[in-house]
Specification:
By secondary structure, the protein is of the alpha+beta class. It has three domains: 112 residues, Roll (DNA Polymerase III, Chain A, domain 2), CATH 3.10.150.10; 125 residues, DNA Polymerase III, Chain A, domain 2; 113 residues, DNA Polymerase III, Chain A, domain 2, CATH 3.10.150. It contains six helices and 26 strands. The strands form two sheets. The protein has a 14-stranded antiparallel beta sheet. It has a twelve-stranded antiparallel beta sheet with strand order 15-11-12-13-26-25-24-19-22-21-20-23. The protein is elongated and about 80 Å long.
Length: 371
């Protein structure tokens, strides 16, 4: 292999690639990056077997070839190079990296032991703007669980609908649901894949794709893989093979209280109250009145506080308590100015919506507190 690339192009792509490099694996091969030079491109690949990332950059190729180098040191070197041309050249069992005033040599190994990231892209599921991927998926992904003993809850469920598709995420204490209309998507979730359960980590990596343009979602059913691809990057992960909980049964159909409020004011109020809730399981209480809600928290050894947020109440006055963390997570992922809260009673789930937007729903289980 003998190629020439621009350091800024290499640095830009390699920053994403390092997210897939294993640092704790007992398989040393996973601590490597695969460099493959062909057809005017340098292709770099890394995987920890859960997530694989492949990036491409334009290159001037004198001689095609491929090799493996230790990822950590290679990435650190590349990110330290000045803006200039970089020459990569294999000599026997070494890779030479030469740039302005810098000459480095890496030990290499053959690529035969490196796992293939994917055999084929598979079926095209949908193509959408990256802005949609980042903006709409962010409204649900934060609600996924982290308990690997319940793998279904660590993923986001995509369900095909007649007019688009539905995103669902839950950790059993909260649930986020978002409809994406077909008009925002090129193609659709095809009939042979009515439901897809995608690892949240894979989605987070896909949401970090920064270039303008579109991202295409593929499913390689043979290997149970999901692939997110743009012009220069592929994010590869495995679909979760687990039964998703029947979330439909907890979706509310009635409410006795409806409160319209300013999201930013509520966000600040909960954040203030959470200071006094840290020693009491992070519990904050909502007391709904005619034209306001009182958000309060109390810790005997610290103190207490009450924050008032104005709003419009429909229905009966009531009280309910939540874990402040769940509320802060929700408000930090919603851009809209006005939101709606609905509840049926203090022991029933609380429902949060975006005003005048039926495509989004967020449910948080309440905390039982003494009156």
């Amino acid at each position: 292999m003998h190629i020439q690339v621009l350091s800024e192009n290499l640095q830009k792509r390699i920053s994403l690639l390092q997210h897939a490099i294993s640092t704790k694996s007992q398989l040393p091969i996973l601590q490597h990056i695969l460099l493959d030079a062909k057809e005017g491109r340098l292709i770099l690949s890394g995987t920890d077997l859960d997530v694989g990332i492949q990036v491409e950059i334009p290159a001037k190729i004198e001689e095609e070839g491929s090799t493996l180098v230790y990822a950590k040191q290679f990435i650190e070197l590349i990110n330290s190079l000045p803006s200039d041309k970089v020459v990569l050249k294999t000599e026997g069992e070494t890779l030479e990296v030469n740039s302005l005033h810098v000459k480095s040599t890496f030990q290499t190994t053959t690529k035969e032991e490196f796992p293939a990231l994917y055999d084929s892209l598979g079926d095209t599921i949908a193509t959408l703007d990256k802005e949609i991927l980042q903006k709409e998926f962010s409204k649900v992904i934060f609600a996924t669980g982290v308990d690997n003993s319940r793998p279904a809850l660590t993923g986001v469920l995509i369900v095909r609908e007649e007019n688009g598709f539905l995103l669902v995420a839950t950790d059993a204490f909260r649930l986020s649901l978002k409809h994406i209309l077909a008009e925002k998507v090129s193609g659709e979730v095809k009939g042979q894949y009515p439901k897809l359960l995608i690892q949240s980590r894979v989605l987070r990596e896909a949401m970090m794709l920064k270039d303008e343009g579109k991202v295409t979602i593929y499913v390689a059913g043979k290997n149970n893989q999901i692939i997110f691809a743009d012009q220069n990057t592929h994010i590869i992960g495995r679909l979760i093979d687990a039964e998703y909980p029947t979330y439909e049964t907890i979706l509310p159909h009635e409410h006795s209280l409806r409160f319209v409020f300013n999201k930013e004011e509520m966000h600040k109020a909960v954040k203030i109250s959470s200071i006094f809730a840290r020693e009491t399981d992070n519990i904050v209480r909502f007391s709904f009145k005619k034209d306001k809600v009182l958000i309060s928290a109390n810790t005997a050894s610290v103190g207490s506080n009450v924050v008032e947020v104005e709003g419009t109440l429909s229905g009966e006055e009531n009280e309910i308590a939540f874990n402040a963390k769940y509320l802060l997570d929700l408000f930090s992922h919603i851009e809209s100015d006005e939101m709606v809260f609905e509840m049926q009673g203090p022991l029933n789930p609380g429902v949060f919506k975006i005003k005048d937007d039926d495509s989004f729903l967020h449910i948080i289980m309440p905390v039982r507190v003494q009156v």
